Every structure is written in C-alpha cells, then in structure tokens.
Please model this.
Amino acid sequence: MTGIRHRAAVVVGVVAGLLGACGTQPATTPARSTAPSAPAAPVLTPSVTPDGGGAATAPGRPAWGSGPVVVEHHPAVPPVPVIIGIRYAAHPGQGYDRIVIEFSGALPGYRVRYVDEVRADPSGRPVAVPGRRHLLMVFHPAQAHRDSGTPTVSGTHRIDLPMLRSYAVVGDNEGYVSLALGVDEVSGYRVGELTGRIYLDVAE
Model:
C-alpha cells in the first residue's frame, strides 16, 4: 500500500512539474518593424497636353517626344501677345539645341509638330526652309508685328547648330503666327515655358 502511494505521489509530482514548466515559458511576440514606409512618388500634372503621343511637359521637368504637342492658353485680348525676339544656342554638354521665342504680354497657346512640307500662311505656297526635316510652331493669339504694321520678327534665318539649321516666320495672319524650324533629322524635342518666353529643345 505504501508503495502504491509513493508511485502516485511521484506521478502527481511529475505532472505538476510539467504544468509548471509550461506556465513559465514566455510567449514569443513577432518583432514589429520600426522602419518608415517609403513615401509615394509625387504626381506631376502636365502643363502641355500631348496630341497623338507627343511630349508632355510637367512643371520644371519637360519630357522628350516626337509627336504633336498642343498647349492651350487663352489670354485676354487686346492686347495680342507680340513676338519681340527669337534667340537660339547650342547646349552640347546637355545634348540639345534650344530656340527661345520672346513675347510681350501674356503667352499665347501653341501647337508643335513635324511637317513634310512648309507652306506659307495664308497663301499656302511652299516655302524653302534650310534643313532636311521641319518642325512647325503655330502660336495663337499672337502677332509678329507692331500695331503700326512694322514686323518685329520676319524672314528666314540660317543657324549653324548641330541640330537646328534655320528658322523662318512663314505666317503672321489674323492672330496666328507660324514659325518653321529646319532641323537635321527627325529627333526628340521638348517644349517649355519661362516668364515671357516659350522655348523648344531639339535633341542632338
């Protein structure tokens, strides 16, 4: 009888020991990451609307493309924005040529596209513009003359740059000014705006 009690006490002691061991084991909690999540990329609203897959220009970050580009501006007129100067320069370190069209007053809307042939507005006659390929910029509302009728920019001008070969004012009629650019090849271009200026870059 004493032996049976002894074995029962041993069994009870073992079970109690096992239960005690389970009760003192700490629970494992998964570690929580303290690294901050990556910020979402900013969304830029284009200021240039591509027409047919052209280049969209986001504020401060113009994009390259070769399709038509349309930019809508609707300045109050009069006065009609006047082109008062055209400047150009090569940027070999950045890989492009730039032409800058300067305006008095507000900036007009504009369209840019490659054309197979340059024609005068409004006559429609072909115009020879130096360069193997041509970009056409049309500004509206705009004019390339003073109210007195004196031209502010006119004619055809050769340019000795890697890509830009010439520019020509081929139309100044009823609020539309057409500017043809002679380039070496069909290449990517981008359009942007600064205060009082519209610029176009052609990739080398």
Q: What stands out?
A: The mean pLDDT is 79. The chain has one helix and 13 strands.
